[in-house]
Amino acid sequence: MKKRLEQLKQDFIDLVGKVTDRDALEALKSEFLGRHGKLSAAMKEMAGLVESERKVIGELANDVKKTIEEAYGEAVGKASKASRASMAQSEWIDVTQPALGSMPRGHLHPVTQVREDLENLFTSMGFAVLDGPELESDYYNFTALNIPPTHPARDIQDTFYVAGHPGTVMRTHTSPVQIRGMREFGVPLRMIAPGRCFRNEATDVRHEHTFHQIEGVVVDRGISFAHMKGVLEAVAHSLYGKDTKIRLRPKFYPFVEPGVNGEVTCYLCTGKGCRLCKKSGWLEIFGAGMVHPNVLKEGGVDPDVYSGFAFGFGLTRLVMLKYGIDDIRHLESGDLRFLKQF
Ligand code: PHE
User: Fold this and answer.
1) What's the predicted TM-score (pTM) here?
2) What is the pLDDT of residues 22-47, one digit of tens each?
3) Ligand 1 lining (C-beta closer than 6 Å)
4) ∠ at Cα 204 (199, 208), nearest 5°?
5) Which helix (H) or strand (E) holds 282?
6) pLDDT digits 0-9 by tens, 93-140
7) Is residue 46 classed as helix, strand or coil in its secondary structure?
8) What is the pLDDT of residues 215-233, one digit of tens each?
9) 3-state SS track over 197-251
10) What does DSSP say about strands 189-198 and 128-129: parallel, antiparallel, or unpaired?
11) Best substitution site from 213, 217, 252, 292 to test ligand 1's pocket, by max atoms within 8 Å of Cβ?
């Protein structure tokens, strides 16, 4: 393992010396450090090591990463200097522009990374990716979803009502996009809608005013509960591996009938019970169910001809589980000390 990492570092240094074009440098860097790059492939094998070895190898890997980044930075600096020199001969240059290659580059937020992974999975299954407004009408957020005014179900979603704009709320879930999707695209429909949601709750390690969900809807002739289970199983397998099982238990949501609360076997203990799953062996990650006939009607779909299922994943929760983040408030904090770890 050690040798392999050293070799990786040496390979990069050898190769980087031969490349002078910036695009090629970028490609070379992602070949080594990218999410599916050589370093991450090597790191995957680390899982099999014992704790003490893992620590040593982990440190070495960080070291290799740093060296590669430095070598890359230097090469980019050189490449842009060379190209500036040749440009200076032929064209005008803006001398006030910050030096290329000297600007530190950031990366995508962990929520965005996981969202993109799931978007890739769903588009591969033929789902369209839709967007909906965060400032939503009371009608789309509640009424159209079979939650009439004065219905107590409104109380369980602590809602931000917007002062001076009656009938307007910060959406409490991504479910309003179910209606918007059906109305805009009709049936058959296969869509997901990732996005931010807002709830007026006291914040603590598990509650935040802003969080992310991914909604999904499939409507067609003859869509059954079995289709729903198949899709959710595919998602669970993609997230946590082929041996992951899902468990659906009845839960009331006004916009589905029947409705379920969805759990997957804990990926850390594979269902035996540990601190991550609070000894239960299961992780609750989504709500789902067969779209209620009233909701289909609101979407302009005839419930006598069509049926469908819907689900809502807690995207923020998936991210927290994936990276072992113990306080949800980090995610919206914008704190670089936190964000740089991903
Ligand atoms: N909208 C629900 C929530 O926020 C989740 C859900 C979506 C449940 C779709 C069923 C179907 O809790």
Assistant:
1) 0.71
2) 888 888 999 999 988 988 888 888 77
3) 173, 175, 253, 256, 259, 287-289, 310-312
4) 30
5) strand 282-291
6) 788 887 777 778 899 999 999 999 999 999 999 999 999 999 999 999
7) helix
8) 999 999 999 999 999 999 9
9) EECCCCCECCECCEEEEEEEEEEECCCCHHHHHHHHHHHHHHHHCCCCCEEEEEC
10) parallel
11) 213
Spatial distance between the Cα atoms of 112 and 120, rounded to a whole number of angstroms: 12
Confidence band of 149 (pLDDT split at 50, 70, 90): confident
In contact, 181 and 142? CB cutoff 8 Å: no
Tell me which residue of 18, 303, 299, 20 sits closest to 143, measured CA to CA. Answer: 299
CA–centroid distance, residue 36 to ligand 1 (Å): 32
How many Cβ atoms sit within 10 Å of the Cβ of residue 77? 14
Answer for the pair 288, 260: CB distance below 8 angstroms, yes or no: yes
pLDDT band at 156 (very low <50, low <70, confident <90, very high): low
Ligand 1 centroid to Cα of residue 340, in Å, is 31
